[in-house]
Design a protein that fits this description.
With 490 residues, the protein is α/β, with parallel strands linked by helices. 37% of the residues lie in helices and 13% in strands.
């Protein structure tokens, strides 16, 4: 048998079911990997004692014949999910030391399925960023490097720590959140699978909010099947979340194990051919089209005419909602408090010291677009654009079953690059944001390497609550691409 840390989530579950390894042995093997690769700074808080205790309890359940879907599987949790008794910071100074007294619904579902938590992963502060360089706890390093170039690369953001942990084989799976691409873009940069479910598929209760109408939890894994298994465990209606969809949870893994896409219609949106995209990404996209065609899919050209407005509309809607959500961090109830001469002074001192530059920038933009005289001109217009984007997708899906696009315009870039130009940074999400604005599911599948040996991803977008068709197409793409890349030294 291969090393425990090399096994996929599905293979690991099988090995434990057959008695080839115990949950405690599996936890210890992955905790050792955490020790070896701590320099990546993928974790904010490690929980080795809790992991071993959870693994021991898992072995006891298995011995009694009570194994869950994820029994004994070690997972990393993005430090945006509240975890009872374990520090939850959102990678911000303002929440440093905050220990929730409750568990998020998604993590509660994972523990119910028998999963084991090894730690809380690093992210861009309050999930705002595309590089994982805005964390108060320092940037995360991508396990991958360019050939012949030792410069540190970013893992993408905001869920960069979760992506790096999976790519470095510290865990077989992890959780992330995706607001405008924060699962799919890091997955592409790190050569793994990242899945953003339909908005409402996974509960947002207990997840620190950035943009409430866009945020959606989802999984990272090294295979499409593994991501489908995780999605099943994470999903389900939650009465505590008013945006949670009251729908049954399908067996997503069954769809992923059936990559027969003969007759499936794959849409290619012409508007995704945009300036600034790496020629290698365009070539990979063309290759992806040919792969799906060879697998029996019918390729259909479609149009999403309002795509060009998605990015500017997103950067009005998301900051507006973040400005509202982050108003609660004032130094009064929890988190950081910096004293002042009066209440207003304390508010100002606390928020100035507690929030980093990118968070302050977005709060200011959001406050501006929501202010009297500008609400109609900006926020209301952006929401109208959003409705048109959603309509574009509905019309496209009358002609096709899934859409195939690039995930990101480039491969991973070096730490420090683009950081002084926020607008260039925002362009990293130009292929992922439209699906987010429409609330649709999307998945990034690693499909090749660029000339520097860095992973590149392709994105599939599905109809609302039709993750099964999307997963089937993703599994077919994964099989055809045959990506087996692995970062050197990991």
């Amino acid at each position: 048998m291969a090393a425990l840390t090399d096994l996929t989530l599905a293979a690991l579950s099988q090995a434990m079911a057959k008695g080839e390894a115990s949950a405690v042995e599996v936890a210890d093997a992955h905790l050792k990997k955490l020790d070896e690769h701590r320099a990546l700074n993928a974790f904010i808080t490690e929980t080795p004692d809790r992991a071993r205790a959870m693994a021991k309890a898992s072995d006891a359940r298995r011995a009694k014949g009570e194994a869950g879907l994820l029994e004994g599987v070690p997972l990393a949790i993005k430090d945006l999910f509240c975890t009872e008794g374990v520090q939850t910071t959102a990678a911000s100074n303002i929440l440093k030391g905050f220990v929730p007294q409750y568990e998020s619904t998604v993590t509660a579902n994972l523990w119910k399925a028998g999963a084991v938590m090894v730690g809380k992963t690093n992210l861009d502060e309050f999930a705002m960023g595309s590089s994982n360089m805005t964390s108060h706890f320092g940037g995360v390093e991508n396990p991958w490097k360019r050939r012949g170039d030792n410069r540190k690369l970013v893992p993408g953001g905001s869920s960069g720590g979760s992506a790096a942990a999976v790519a470095a084989f510290m865990v077989p799976g992890s959780t992330g959140t995706d607001t405008g691409g924060s699962i799919r873009q890091p997955a592409a940069f790190c050569g793994i699978v990242g899945l953003k479910p339909t908005y409402g598929r996974c509960s947002r209760w207990g997840v620190v909010a950035f943009s409430s109408s866009l945020d959606q939890p989802g999984p990272f894994a090294r295979t499409v099947e593994d991501s489908a298994i995780l999605l099943r465990a994470m999903s389900g209606h939650d009465p505590k979340d008013s945006t949670s969809a009251p729908l049954p949870v399908p067996d997503f893994a069954a769809a992923a194990r059936n990559p027969d896409i003969r007759g499936l219609r794959v849409g290619i949106p012409k508007e995704y051919r945009v300036d600034g995209t790496s020629p290698e990404i365009v070539t990979l996209w063309e290759r992806g089209i040919e792969m799906l065609k060879a697998a029996g899919a019918a390729i259909v050209d479609v149009s999403l005419p309002h795509t060009k407005y998605a990015l500017p509309a997103y950067y009005i809607v998301a900051p507006a909602e973040c400005s509202s959500n982050l108003a609660r961090y004032d130094g009064v109830r929890y988190g950081l408090r910096v004293p002042g001469k009066d209440l207003t002074d304390m508010y100002e001192n606390t928020r100035a010291a507690g929030f980093g530059k990118e968070v302050r920038r977005r709060v200011m933009i959001g406050t501006y677009v929501l202010s009297a005289g500008y609400y109609d001109a900006y926020y209301k217009k952006a929401q109208q654009i959003r409705a048109l984007i959603a309509r574009d997708f509905r019309q496209a899906f009358e002609k096709c079953d899934v859409l195939l696009t690039p995930t990101a315009p480039t491969a991973a870039f070096a730490a420090g690059e683009k950081m002084d130009d926020p607008v260039t940074m925002y362009l990293n999400d130009m292929f992922t944001i439209p699906a987010s604005m429409a609330g649709l599911p999307g998945i990034s599948v690693p499909a090749g390497l660029d000339k520097d040996g860095l992973p590149l991803g392709l994105q599939l977008i599905g109809r609302a609550f039709d993750e099964e068709t999307m997963l089937k197409a993703a599994a077919a793409l994964e099989k055809a691409a045959g990506f087996e890349g692995r970062a050197a030294g990991y």
